[in-house]
Amino acid sequence: xxxxxxxxxxxxxxxxxxxxxxxxxxxxEVKKGEIHALMGENGAGKSTLMKxxxxxxxxxxxxxxxxxxxxxxxxxxxxxxxxxGMVHQHFMLVPSLTVAExxxxxxxxxxxxxxxxxxxxxxxxxxxxxxxxxxxxxxxRVADIPVGMxxxxxxxxxxxxxxxxxxxxxxxxxxxxxETAELFTQLVNLKNQxxxxxxxxxxxxxxxxxxxRMTILRGGRSMGIHETSSVxxxxxxxxxxxRDVVLKVEKEEAQPTDEVLRVRDLEYVNDWGKKxxxxxxxxxxxxxxxxIAGVEGNGQKELVDMLFGFARPNHGTVEVNGQSVLGLNQxxxxxxxxxxxxxxxxxxxxxxxxxxxxxLISDRCTFPRLNNGPLFNMKAIHEESARLVKDYTVKxxxxxxxxxxxxxxxxxxxxxxxxxxxxxxxxIADQPTRGIDVGATEFxxxxxxxxxxxxxxxxxxxxDLNEVMELSDSLIIMCGGKIxxxxxxxxxxxxxxxxxxxxxxxxxxxxxxxxxCHE
Amino acid sequence: xxxxxxxxxSLIRGLAAMGIALAVAFLLILFSANGSNLPEKFSSSLAxxxxxxxxxxxxxxxxxxxxxxxxxxxxxxxxxxTGLATCIMFAANQFNxxxxxxxxxxxxxxALVAIYLPLPTPALMxxxxxxxxxxxxxxxxxxxxxxxxxxxxxxxxxxxxxxxIMYFINYLMNSYLADTxxxxxxxxxxxxxxxxxxxxxxxxxxxxxxxxxxxxxxxxWLFMYRTRWGYGIRMTGINQPFVMxxxxxxxxxxxxxxxxGGFLAGIGGGIEMLGRYNVYNWSALPGYGWxxxxxxxxxxxxxxxxxxxxxxxxxxxxxxTLMSTNANVPSQLISIIQAVIFIFFAAQQFMSGYRQxxxxxxxxxxxxxxxxxxxxxDQ
Lengths: 519, 379
Hints:
The complex is a heterodimer of chains A (519) and B (379). With 519 residues, chain A is α/β, with parallel strands linked by helices. Chain A is 32% helix and 25% strand.
């Protein structure tokens, strides 16, 4: 009977060196030729389980069978030789090489054994590209191709290496809806050709659309294997989080007052001469949440960099409470009561091997209330960190635990606890709930609304449409470095309408957009 | 993993590292030992090991040697200072290797003050050592500012600076400062009131500088773990973009830690000079800076563990010297043995499998406990 299964993982337990029990007695089975979803919140143990299947981590106990044969996957090389391929969420490509060169990395075809044969690599790439109907530009440099194509390169890379079982780690996280639809067609194609696909995601509608069966993980344990056709989205959601989460945030009507952030005619040309921001003007007032929606890479990152002193614009002004922030450093900007939740929390938001407490005081370590002359006032610091951990429900043993050992959601709660508790007048929240579990997401969203209603100006940048629509009082859409649309009221907005502006199919008139300046 | 288990693991790991290192050392000694047959070689190898392990503090007749212990403690003085200096610089991820030249310059400047500046009794000592420390602190501005402002590798700069310092001092000594009435290159004697008094008068040269060293250990720990500046240094070492984003001045931290490190190495040199010698006669880099790097790595950049690491290194050095003089083990072999012991101690992954087992056990225990509590509350 076991011939029926491509993958069987039995009783898998994984304990990381820092003591985190990522998987506990997990059974995971994938039939040959199916699309199998692996679902769960962040920190539920999905990535760990897949890393073990791809030989990047070794299980502490339990066994893995591939096509009914017991295997010992000590490295990705071994996993590949067993026909397992993985497409990582963050692409593992060399940007400066061409698509064909990336395809043959580590298995370069040669002329006479020494000289690499580039033509053969290109030929191989085209051959596979046609065979699987995955179109890629073999001669283009990876740095120059769009995200969707990079993903296809990753999939082809796995196929070239003989993979019959493909693991896709949140493949749609970086794709537009059109690209997602295209990917799904191709996945179904692969399935019809007898390939087995493991699909990691926490987007319910995608799972319902293309998978046959699913395994749900919660807190490192398996919540069982289910036929996709026999469960409802509500049931899945309950299995994932253990309760029905309603991601509706209750909020009263905004009563915006004075202008806090004033951005006018901002222009920025990046190091490669590309105009990333083009005459961007808007204002954020006390007591309102202004959302910025848009497909990533349309100037949002550059805008945030200008606002928080990481880069200087070529033209334009940025003022907080009437004072220019251009040319100031992060300390000076923070002194103007500006807080920021950074997009990449692992790089800017935390110091991973430091304790939770040390991460909570980084912006206020020089404040007199936390110091006794030259020394830290440890009592005050302990009190402050204990209070923040409690108020923000950071799940940890104590504030002296390493912050890096927490789950993504709890790490983000630490960041948010610090940024929201420092008497801010303006909060810049850049993708505040990206990739974190539902519980933490709900908490952070509620907190943002609460803060804005207490009279704080909030600028919310998010690629998550639900999030911007749910939280924002008013909304701008960015496309190609410009503001494409301004909606004073977000209540009647639809995904469709927003999509048109986000993809540049439509654009509002200048005077309509100009209303966001509230002049 | 609980703190108790962590300590248990560290202890077992340390002892195992020691055991393996000694076994390897034994084989190496056996290889070169005197004796015509194996039993003879065996017993002379054992005697050599005994020299290294026990002789530093135990006399031939089996009694405890105060002189031996004070020799070891005296040997700790300079490497405690260079160890602390390196800890502070490495904690910020600044791989400044200037403690070596720093201790030489500190010793030299302190010596000059002790010879030429007429000051009353306690003041001269203190001023001489402080001036020595400050001179190195200021010199470290070169690699520090270049790193902070231009991104030049502090490792390369500080490494080259060591030789600049050494040759510059040698030039000054040979051309201007040497006492020409003596057969070797040395300065005129220090003023008598500049010499740091000895804690014990048995020829060990264990001066009160040892106590100053221990005080600096505590101060360094306080600085690193209980002040905003030390906090900034440690955070910079963990994640520099985070420090910038949080509103701290990264450039200042990069400069501060290297200047402080230079200062510590400098006063270490001054204290070593006034505590052990009465003339300055170093003509080459003393090696204490390199040992200081070893000490800092063994101590995991935590100042509190510096005395332990320094004791270990000092003991090992003395033991190896005794082994080479009394047991005829060639000095090249001594270096190999020292290296083997160090490798096992510093190896991050050594016994990580055993650690993993402890971790798994304690994680399972915690889970079980949590489950029991959960069941109890359910009832």
